[in-house]
Write a structure and sequence with these properties.
Metallo-beta-lactamase, Chain A; seven-stranded mixed sheet; four-stranded mixed sheet; single chain
């Protein structure tokens, strides 16, 4: 699925319940997260749809280093020389995207939440088990972020991973929340604003605390790592996520 201008100059790509965003300005394109290995065809289609090519992507930002967000990053880096940025605390995970901290075993979740199984199968078919790590990431800092297309404000949101970061675009009234706040949890299949299940979260308590950093952006549109964009304001999204709590 491709939705252009979900927020001004921000394009939304969804494949296997995983979201990717293209941020456009006069200096080129910023790719935020890269989905799964077989998401590449959707990216090519989206670029064509907005009259751009992969050569217009000047940088990739990973909100965090999990396998479903780094799926095509190494290929884009090595083939096209596109730099890949992530928070230094997530550089190790980006290089080894199956080696990450989590509070509970993910293998129990398909039994406990059978409704999530179709989505997990879609992720598997999209290449979730064959992700190449990113061998060379560059440090994502507030200063670096400000110089990227769209001039995002870096919003550290640790919890899901130690180095998780969201990106706020004040002039577009939008925040890309990554997995700090999602509207569909791939591990439970539950819709609505929430933090991701403990099966893939390093520190749920910290993740819930980081919702306040998202709230402080006051953005109208929340663009999550999984699930549909939320356009009723970050305040309402955070309130609902806090009601749900951890799981």
């Amino acid at each position: 699925m491709i939705s252009t201008d979900i927020a001004p100059g921000i394009h939304h790509l969804e494949h296997a319940r995983t979201n990717v965003y293209l941020v456009e300005d006069e200096n080129g394109l910023l790719l935020v997260d890269t989905g799964l290995p077989r998401s590449r065809a959707l990216l090519s289609s989206a670029l064509s749809q907005i009259g751009r090519s992969v050569r217009d992507i000047t940088a990739i930002v990973l909100t965090h280093g999990h396998f479903d967000h780094v799926g095509t990053a190494e290929q884009l880096r090595t083939r096209y020389g596109i730099p890949v940025y992530c928070h230094p605390a997530d550089a190790r995970i980006a290089a080894h995207p199956y080696s990450y901290d989590h509070e509970r075993s993910p293998f129990l979740y398909p039994v406990r939440y059978p409704g999530a199984v179709p989505g997990l199968l879609r992720m598997t078919l999209a290449g979730a088990l064959t992700v190449r790590g990113v061998r060379d990431t560059q440090a994502l800092t507030a200063e670096v972020a400000a110089g990227l297309p769209g001039s995002p404000v870096l919003v550290p949101t640790p919890g899901h991973t130690d180095g998780h970061c969201a990106l706020h675009f004040p002039d577009r009234d939008a925040v890309i929340s990554g997995d700090a706040l999602v509207t569909l949890d791939p591990y439970t299949g539950r819709p609505g604003p929430q933090v991701v299940a403990s099966a893939a979260t390093a520190d749920t308590r910290a993740a819930l605390h980081s919702l306040e950093a998202l709230r402080s952006t006051a953005a109208r549109t929340v663009l999550p790592g999984h699930g549909l964009p939320w356009q009723a304001g970050v305040e309402s999204a955070v309130a609902r996520a806090l009601e749900v709590g951890g799981h």
